[in-house]
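Input record (one chain):
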Amino acid sequence: MPAEHRQVIVASSIGALFEWYDFYLFGVLAPVFAQAFFAAAGEHAALATTLLAFAAGFLVRPVGALLFGRLGDLIGRKYTFLVTLVLMGVATFAIGLLPGYDTIGAAAPALLVVLRVLQGLAIGGEYGGVATYVAEHAPRDRRGLYTGWVQTTASLGLLLALTASVGLRSALGDEAFAAWGWRLPFLASLALLVVGIWVRLRLRESPLFLELKRSGGASRRPLTDAFGNWRNLRQVLIALFGLVAAQAVVWYTGQFEALFFLTMTLKVDETTAALLLGAALLLASPLFVLFGAWSDRIGRKPIILAGCVLAAASWLPLFGALAKSANPLLVAAQQRVAVQLHAAPADCAWRIAARDTACERAQRLLSLRAVHYVQVDASGPAMVSIAGRQIELDLDEALLRQRLDAALDAAGYPRQADPARVAHVQVVAILFVLIACVAMVYGPLAAMLVEMFPTRVRCSSVSLPYHLGNGWFGGLLPSAVLAVSAHSGRVVDGLWVPIVVVLAGALLCAIFVRENRDTAL
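The corresponding structure, as predicted from the sequence alone:
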């Protein structure tokens, strides 16, 4: 590999790594944000609201993709991802300075959402520019290898965020970390910003883009040319529904949903869960480069399809095994203790906006303790039966929670995972398999997306489907999984949401996506 190409890969990947670190800190520290900014809503509602704030950064990513993708096709790839790096670094640093709810009241969560939105805009402009820039430097037969390094940065950014969280929590203690120590990883982003700018300023512009500018072939209206032209728009839609939607839910189920499942459902302490996921990420990260390089030999499409099918087929047994390995006492209680929720069907029906009925309150509280329950249609007073002990639901939420907790404690439902019973090796092995499926789908993806579009609108065309898929399908995944699990009464039922999306995406990929690994850019 020429020295210039090594510099391109290293500099691009380092900047992307820092941006993903900034973006994922929010998710890693979701329980802390729930207490610092949303505690007034109650524990379960605070967690759900935090996940929605987390999702806000994902929802605006397509806007960032349009804004910065257009700039990438107009003025160049290099300068565009310099701007996104600065925006991400400043927004992340500001989160570290933001006062909590106890200090400025409702303004605190509002400002937090605003800064999260700025993060989403920045990351929306980052990926398309970096993936395009690296691919346009790569030889035709090594694009998967070159861009595979870029694909590692999202998982390594998550690993870096986990490392910062665990290290500071261990050094400061849980109380100090929750009070003020959580701010330090965000404040450290200022130093990462300086390093990232210095590294990226040394890069030259993409040779294909410069050649296009010299020949007068660059687009003057990138968005119109990319999305107003049916032939190109059709490719964008195929990329979104046939590739990126499935990739997004594989990525977030295999990594973020696994982390949330360990901490929020299985009640493993946050430090242990972060260390276990971090170990699996460290072991599995080389697979992103491996599958990217392998796709140069056998094609991108078969590897991506295999990863989707393996992920969808393995999630239910793997998450079930994760529960048994991380909190066997909880699994035993779920199997042993009969819990029934008696309520009128209308009070428990799905609706867009919750009405806070007795049934919905009970669903939230039972879900918070990871209880498996059966819903029974009843016309009388709403109640919960726990191992034969009946508790009426016509109570205020604090008293209801107190009585449910007492009954669940008496029935043997653990409040926390027993550290001595967490099977660390088994948990890391399961997480490794989950991330291996992620690597199969994500490793070859950048090269495949770049190969689908012409140079003059490549940045815009790659950015929008990537961030629509990851922002909307991936970003809303934790909230959707939580809602389905709470409504169904079984903690793993929410996994049917990503399973359906992945299988639908794999079917569309098999039908509509063409193999383009030998395409000249």
